[in-house]
Design a protein that fits this description.
heterodimer, A: about 120 residues, mainly beta, six-stranded mixed sheet, four-stranded antiparallel sheet, about 0% helix, B: about 120 residues, 11 strands
């Protein structure tokens, strides 16, 4: 079975501080892509960051970076210098390459950035 | 690039009624996906189109659900004889064969409430 587990239903962080969201996944495939999506309240889901499983180097996008541990099937998201606009639901997801076209999502982590 | 649009944004219906949702993907995208998101959960895959062909369907898509994508452009998702358990956010996403890293672009969703 293909699953994604986000063990932190809710988290909070002070503005300007750093927070890490956890994600583990399970797939028997060796080629896949991992994603973190952000869903602000009442707004549409947007991609935060992407990681190709065949790349050892961790992806970074401005204040967002990941810690990808393929053997452990772990894919955490670090948000540095948190901003009020980072308040949102964050979903970890993956898609296998050359297989099913569906994204498999976790249940999400609700992040609140406090002023 | 106007993004993925969905119509309506909200729909309230009585149990037993039929409803239809529309999704307009990004114009150059040939792949279109439907997901369902219930409260406190991540999106779950329903079905996938490549051009006009429906290539994959989830077991979540019961025989009361039907999706079409005539001419490979917009798509409709119809739910017949709605049940209270159908209450959810219905998300549409699109991508293309050239989309970097299998990224899917999401619409704002249609929130369905069955009373």
């Amino acid at each position: 079975a293909q699953t994604v587990t986000q063990s932190q239903p809710e988290m909070s962080v002070q503005e300007a501080e750093t927070v890490t969201l956890s994600c583990t996944y399970d797939t028997s495939e060796s080629n896949y892509y991992l994603f973190w999506y952000k869903q602000p309240p009442s707004r549409q889901m947007i991609l935060v960051i992407r990681q190709e499983a065949y790349k050892q180097q961790n992806a970074t996008e401005n204040r967002f970076s990941v810690n990808f541990q393929k053997a452990a099937k772990s894919f955490s998201l670090k948000i540095s210098d948190s901003q009020l606009g980072d308040t949102a639901m964050y979903f970890c997801a993956f898609i296998t390459q050359g297989g099913s076209e569906k994204l498999v999502f976790g249940k999400g982590t609700k992040l609140t950035v406090n002023p | 690039d106007t993004g993925v649009s969905q119509d309506p944004r909200h729909k309230i219906t009585k149990r037993g009624q039929n409803v239809t949702f529309r999704c307009d993907p990004i114009s150059e995208h040939n792949r279109l996906y439907w997901y369902r998101q219930t409260l406190g959960q991540g999106p779950e895959f329903l079905t996938y189109f490549q051009n006009e062909a429906q290539l994959e369907k989830s077991r979540l898509l019961s025989d009361r659900f039907s999706a079409e994508r005539p001419k490979g452009s917009f798509s409709t998702l119809e739910i017949q004889r709605t049940e209270q358990g159908d209450s959810a956010m219905y998300l549409c996403a699109s991508s293309s064969d050239t989309t970097r890293g299998y990224e899917q672009y999401f619409g704002p969703g249609t929130r369905l409430t069955v009373t």
